[in-house]
Amino acid sequence: MPSDRRYTEAYSQMANSIQTDAETKLGRPMSAAEADAIRNAGSLMMLESVGLGIERASGADDVIRQITDATLAFADRLDDARNQVQQALCGKLNRSLSLAETQAVAGISNCLTAMQILHNIDDAVAVTSVSDVMV
Fold first, then answer.
1. Same domain, yes or no, for 67 and 27?
2. CA 12/CA 46 separation, integer angstroms
């Protein structure tokens, strides 16, 4: 998962734009799980493919189908992102994570959040707990 801030900002902006398009076609706000499905693409290229699918959707049913497909396709990407956060935290803390800290990392709901946490870890001079870097 890329860790460049400009990349993360572009990813965030694109995800927000896709969410807005999807909500317009759905005629309602997206649930947190639906929004996470978009944010779990993990790369701009994959995010663009989700966006194109939603843009081409002829109605709400097609949007739901795109979101469902994204949820299934990107599940491994979220696991990988969580693993990257856990490894970065262990390196910064110079120890294994506690059960509570591991659970906090497991609670990361999407790849965009993981990218932002990785930036926080990179920026932190000293990290004494996972809560120091979580968003």
1. yes
2. 13
**10 is written with which tokens?**
């572009």
In the numeric block, which tokens belong to residue 72?
């299934």
Can you tell me the distance from the alpha carbon of 131 to that of 85, in angstroms, rounded to the nearest whole number?
A: 13
94 and 59 share one domain? no
**Residue 66 sits in the same domain as residue 91:** no
pTM, rounded to two decimals: 0.86
Which residue, chain included where needed, has tokens 């497991």? Answer: 106
The whole-angstrom separation of Cα 108 and Cα 3 is: 16
Token couple for 105: 């990392």
Residue with tokens 């856990």: 86
Q: What residue numbers bound the domain in which 36 lies?
A: 5-74
Neighbours of 91 (CB within 10 A): 11
pLDDT digits (tens, 9 = 90+) for 34-68: 999 999 999 999 999 999 999 999 999 999 999 99
80 and 67 belong to one structural domain: no
